[in-house]
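idk why but the lab printer keeps eating my pages so im just putting this in chat instead. protein + N-(iminomethyl)-L-glutamic acid:
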Amino acid sequence: MRTLIHHIGLLAGILPPGKLRLTGSEMAVMQTLPDAWLLATDGLITDFGPMSTMPTCTDCHTVHAHGAILMPCFCDPHTHLVYAGSREQEFVDKIRGLSYAEIARRGGGILNSADLLHQLSEEELYRQAMRRVEEIKSKGTGCVEIKSGYGLNTADELKMLRVVRRIRETAGIRIAATFLGAHAVAREYQGRQGEYVDRVVREMIPEVGKQRLAEFIDVFCDEGFFTPTETDRILRAGARYGLRPKIHAEELAPSGGVRVAVAHHALSADHLEHMADESIALLQGSDTMPTLLPGTSFFLNMPYAPARKLIDAGLGIALASDYNPGSTPSGDMKFIVSLACIKMRLLPQEALNAATINAAYSMGASCTHGSITRGKRACLQLLDAPSLDYLPYAYTSNLVKQMFL
Ligand code: NIG
Ligand code: FE
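predcted complex ->
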């Protein structure tokens, strides 16, 4: 099937083939074409150009864009959107003064979500997650990474990853699956962290690997959670099954997560709210994408990751939502782009590049997603906006006229 979208006011996010990420000053520019058309064949971008060159196509399904902006869908390379129920009680506890780390130390947080998940059927878990997936699809996301990490035992981690697989088969968008058994120490292993890590390494990873339920592996490498030494051991075990690392690093403290990420050629090092200055040098020259989650800083009232410093040091950055029940119960990538502009001082085009091409890189999808490039998936959003700057400016408006997934 062929689809011709015409009278596009601005076609944005054009990149040449082979450009898989943007770094430093490159991030400030989104290549655009005003007054354009775009042709997609069987879900792939075949061609595009200025209206004066539009081909005639009698058997095409045509879409009149009426001057709207057409750009790549958002990619969201870090979410925990498969979870059971919600944790609004902790939201109230935080307003009353408890921190995220204190709630976790008292046995709440991730362990509360694990308790809820143990009781929930696979079917109901899928149903709850799909509601979230449908919501983010309507807000511009066409490509999303989803982690396990609320099972914390082999059976329930596998249950989560089967739900992710089912979402991949039914949601009509690109999904990447990440195994995060080392998200917290399971309740029944409290005080026996080493034994829990043994279980992750000896039992969970081999099962996930054999059943091919994930492509990536993650560890919550941070103060109060897993150490760099434990992380190193877990990532080595994952590598035996071809699981590439994408890890939680330096969210709560400069705890060495970036060093271990870079040493293992992690695709991304995520969070970085409390990143040590020396981590910038480690990231330079690596293939690890710093992936920032301003929604978490907003929701937890924490410092924001030093996005400007990273870009000014010549690095690329990606943005993600972190959609999860504890630290960011939202997957609204357009709002994430606004936060990056308002709170991290990114220019709108830097933030949009971070949420498209660099976000796609951060989940191993930039060969097929994240830009307007001939041969890539026609995973596109049509937006009712007068300019690109308007997107983060209108920070709560849903401007999506139509999604092409
Ligand atoms: O990325 N930091 C670890 N994991 C999540 C929070 C998970 C939760 O609280 O349920 C995060 O913020
Ligand atoms: Fe996270």
